[in-house]
Amino acid sequence: MWKSGVTLARALRPRSAPRLGSKASSRASKPAAACHLLWSSETQFSQAGQPKDYALPNASWSQGMLNLYNEFVEKSKDGTWKRIPSYRHSLDHIPDSVKLEGEKVQKDTRLFLRNLDEEGLGFEYVMFLNPSEKRMVTVYQPGPYLEGHPGFTHGGSTAAMIDSTIGSCAIFVAGRVMTANLSIDFKNPIPLGSVVLVDSKVDRMEGRKVFLSCQVWSADGQTLHAEATALFIQLASLTRR
Amino acid sequence: MWKSGVTLARALRPRSAPRLGSKASSRASKPAAACHLLWSSETQFSQAGQPKDYALPNASWSQGMLNLYNEFVEKSKDGTWKRIPSYRHSLDHIPDSVKLEGEKVQKDTRLFLRNLDEEGLGFEYVMFLNPSEKRMVTVYQPGPYLEGHPGFTHGGSTAAMIDSTIGSCAIFVAGRVMTANLSIDFKNPIPLGSVVLVDSKVDRMEGRKVFLSCQVWSADGQTLHAEATALFIQLASLTRR
Q1: What is the pTM of this model?
Q2: pLDDT tens figures, B142-171
Q3: Which residues 159-178 of chain A have a CB within 8 Å of chain B?
Q4: Helices B155-174 and A155-174: crossing angle, nearest 10°?
Q5: Residues of B in contact with A122 (CB under 8 A)
Q6: Residues from chain B contacting residue A184 (CB–CB below 8 Å)
């Protein structure tokens, strides 16, 4: 569990130079001012009413999950961090301003990480954005339907947690993006039902390329479960208008 | 769709050396983290009766999925390929000979890729093993509940398809293994409801390290959706007996 500000500060400490930094070309990165949040609480929906936001506590959340959630909510009060809502349908996350012509929410599809009906069985999670640090953190509680080796999360579900967090971080900077590369070093298995913090950050941009890195920590900040780097490509025709 | 033996031969052509081989070989040994299961048709079950095998056609399978399945079943008649059964619970895949003391199937957990109740919504798939080539191929039909970008599979679900296939391939060679690294290059998005062939192969072994590579092709062999390399670590106490 996330017990103290000290522990929180430890896991959320300023990160060392990104591993990909050494390969950085001399080309200047895009200025931070060019960055935009693709989906946020300001998102305007064309359909009547707001879809259900799943990034809020429910009865399946453990005390450890609630503790971390509450700490980030507290940190959000001064605007440093910001809770990101989460919906069941992919297109609900996309503001009208970057929707393609004719794009409508398909009610027969579901966002991969929100595809189970019963709370607590799959991915319980909430994302928090730190705009000034270009950083996205997700608090995850992987449920019993994400099993690989008995008692632990499947490598594919760990990859999904990372891809979702790191992709959302890329979206914050570049608008609509697609994954080009994802490389994960798995360090320690993640027990089902535990709470982990996936901490991602944009390292640099080169044109339409967005380079990011990510770490997966146990809730107490003592165990590094995984590290990852990723390259996302900004969709040229879909950059923010 | 998989239309001809020529097309099949094209997608299943001998593969070149993995691009990341040199990088992988220089990688220091690390503790492995994402766990995988040993399953095979020789699995002996201690509980009464066989669990349901999900790697068989059901009403949700498209004609394209059935065509590929039938082609591999045909190729299995001479023993070159072998269909691998697939169950809902992780431990059902593990033969008694490599079970840990006290390991029992937990009925409240589910294998990540078999966690949805309704056929066709999630991962429909069947794996075929080519023992002499140390190769595992999975025919996948990703359903509408695996969405990321509207209309396409989530990067995390693509990673899960790859991890599951490549991990199963590692298991065939090394017994119980854990993922140490997985690196994926995403080339072309995978439409929901399409059929893809995930083709994985053991490239080499160094002690307890198993190096593999993988490609994800469209069913017609015309589109390369993704390429991946992986490093798995054999669990010392659980090597195949």
Answers
A1: 0.80
A2: 999 999 988 999 999 999 999 999 999 998
A3: 159-164, 167, 176, 178
A4: 150
A5: 115
A6: 179, 181-183
